[in-house]
């Protein structure tokens, strides 16, 4: 219950007493929760909830001369992946006791980077997480990293280039798709790929080609797309079907897969009986497509937490290295046996 009888807001000492831990343990639960055992962390957080404890951010800023503010750079794209990643980072930062300031960066021109840097420095941003699905935003991230701690969320870079990188393994996701289709008996597996300037699209193409080659099979037809929409998938599938009718189509995201299914149906082809279709992302509606869509689920929340944890480590002068997070195949009805 709240500390109203005391005539003051509950303090960290009150939380420590309630949880049966030290004042230092409460501080770690707020600032570096990953350093605590899960049962201890939950006990401290329960005490905070029971007492109605809220961290005094202004007092913290005065004491540490830090603002508790993390910058997040978004490419300004409305696609599912960048938006979900942004939300995941914001949630992870909030759970660690930080607020976020968002800046949209679409290119690596010096004036764009300087403007972003001025904005962050003017607001007292301590460090930055950059969502970089394309090389231009990754280049901007490199420029920012010369002035403040930066973590890049992308599937296209490596920490070998002196970058702090977190990403989802797109090649692995594509391999999971192809392996599933081969297990179902498909041998002619085509691919509708995303925009070729996106790291994610490139990784999915690479994984698709690699696993087919390792299985002794030639890659099926590949049709590229200029965007990630259902309309783009519809047009790409029409182009594909004008030359070939594959056993299965691996589509680079779920919305394009929806368009591809519509293109197949417009030619009298049934999914999955005539052609299997697999998407990527596991958008919220994927289970309600007709048929329900087999797809790859990207662990955006895990990536957001990993980016925030990496940022905390590098600001503590500990070298974190990079990490690729494994996606998960979600099997539904749109892919069937050959």
TrEMBL record:
Q: Which CDD domains match?
A: HTH_LacI (cd01392), PBP1_LacI (cd01574)
Endpoints of the signal sequence: none
Q: Which UniProt keywords apply?
A: DNA-binding, Transcription, Transcription regulation
What the entry lists under InterPro entries is as follows:
HTH_LacI (IPR000843), LacI/GalR-like_sensor (IPR046335), Lambda_DNA-bd_dom_sf (IPR010982), Peripla_BP_I (IPR028082)
One Pfam entry for this protein is Peripla_BP_3
PANTHER family recorded: HTH-TYPE TRANSCRIPTIONAL REGULATOR GALS, LACI-RELATED TRANSCRIPTIONAL REPRESSOR
Q: What is this protein called?
A: LacI family DNA-binding transcriptional regulator
Originating species: Nesterenkonia salmonea
């Amino acid at each position: 219950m709240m500390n109203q009888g005391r005539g003051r807001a509950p303090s960290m000492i009150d939380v420590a007493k309630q949880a049966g831990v030290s004042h230092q343990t409460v501080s770690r639960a707020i600032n570096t929760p990953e350093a605590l055992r899960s049962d201890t962390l939950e006990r401290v957080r329960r005490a905070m909830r029971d007492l109605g404890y809220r961290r005094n951010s202004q007092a913290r800023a005065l004491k540490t001369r830090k603002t508790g503010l993390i910058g997040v750079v978004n490419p300004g794209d409305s696609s599912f992946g960048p938006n979900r990643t942004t939300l995941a980072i914001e949630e992870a930062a909030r759970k660690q006791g930080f607020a976020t300031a968002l800046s949209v960066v679409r290119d690596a021109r010096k004036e764009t980077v300087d403007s972003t840097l001025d904005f962050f420095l003017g607001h007292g941003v301590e460090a930055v997480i950059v969502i970089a699905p394309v090389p231009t935003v990754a280049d901007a991230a490199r420029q920012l990293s010369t002035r403040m701690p930066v973590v890049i969320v992308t599937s296209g870079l490596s920490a070998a280039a002196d970058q702090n990188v977190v990403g989802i393994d797109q090649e692995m996701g594509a391999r999971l798709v192809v392996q599933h289709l081969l297990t179902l008996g498909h041998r002619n597996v085509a691919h509708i790929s995303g925009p070729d300037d996106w790291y994610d699209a490139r990784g999915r193409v690479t994984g698709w080609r690699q696993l087919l080659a390792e299985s002794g099979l030639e890659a099926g037809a590949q049709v590229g797309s200029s965007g990630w929409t259902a309309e783009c998938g519809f047009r790409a599938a029409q182009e594909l079907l004008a030359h070939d009718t594959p056993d299965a189509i691996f589509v680079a995201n779920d919305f394009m897969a929806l368009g591809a299914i519509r293109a197949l149906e417009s030619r009298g082809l049934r999914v999955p009986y005539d052609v299997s279709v697999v998407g990527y992302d596991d958008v919220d509606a994927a289970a309600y497509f007709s048929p329900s869509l087999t797809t790859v689920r990207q662990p955006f929340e895990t990536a957001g937490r990993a980016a925030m944890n990496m940022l905390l480590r590098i600001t503590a002068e500990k070298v974190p290295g990079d990490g690729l997070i494994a996606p998960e195949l979600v099997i539904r009805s749109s892919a069937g046996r050959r």
